[in-house]
Batch of 2 targets.
Target 1
Amino acid sequence: MNFLLDDLINLPKVRIRNVIKESTETFLILDCLEEEVTCPHCENKTDKIHQTRTKIVRDLPISGQIIYLNIPKRQFHCEQCQKHFTEELEFVERGRRFTQRYEKYVYERVIASSVEQVRREEDLSWDQVNRIHQHQYEIKKKVGRR
Ligand SMILES: [Zn+2]
């Protein structure tokens, strides 16, 4: 356990188990803290883990270093309704390869400069930056309509 590092990354329901540094990239290996999660199908609480895979997502830089989070993607089995489901973490949208805060950060920076500049500075592809920008733009459009 490393309370200082956990405070630094400021993400809910996870803690840092290990840090692996590879040249310009740093991987934070995370553990999920919640033992019980709520089944999205029947709202029963369960702690029966069926399997755990790993998902790697890009997060905000720390001290100028590229940060990836190594997140356990836990699949649970609900004994009440007999369905399997994957735990959702609020800081990563399903199917995305970046944390929400990183996508917001990229979006704001594209507005302040350009896709080309952000691509270069963040070491992303033009397509990745453009897709993040579009995705965040769609989210903001939806929120604005409410
Ligand atoms: Zn259930």
Target 2
Amino acid sequence: MQHLKLPHALLSYEEKFWDTATANEIFGVLLTEISWEHQPIKLFGKTHLQPRLTAWYGDFAYTYSGLTLQPKNWHSLLLKIKTQIEQATGFAFNAVLLNQYRDGKDYMGWHADDEHGLGKNPVIASASFGTTRRFLLRKNDDHSQKQELPLSHGSLLVMAGETQSHYQHSIPKAMKVEGVRINLTFRKEGKA
Ligand SMILES: O=C(O)CCC(=O)C(=O)O
């Protein structure tokens, strides 16, 4: 477990939370058994399709950027992963957002996981499978410096403390990357 110490942020990263064989198996099931959707998103008054596929599982509807995702019933593999992460970290979660980056053209823009329902200082556990992509982190009030972490197959990143109120994160485009990446961010909706 590697700890990243940044002012007002608490991040820990485990590169091989799942060994390669287990990660391969999880990746295959997620790719084929998750109900992936291509959702629209409104940007500057215009509606576009998101540059990735998504799925939302859990006990609550999820609203962000004017979009509400109705929760799907938990898939048994997602529950298993959730339990493994809860046992390893000591934190509890009740929902997961899945993002599928079909290739390097898919990306996630700068944002924080600071939706109202998550409460103050939410803990986010982020599991990655498939192709490694760059995860970038920057302070809200200083965009000149970026921290970079390659999130690899079978890895687990936990963002805690005040990370979401002081920092934004993104997955930039990587035009030469052809492989698929699946990311799961486990969250705890505060209304539970
Ligand atoms: O794909 C990732 O690693 C980041 C996902 C993310 O930023 C999110 O779900 O809010």
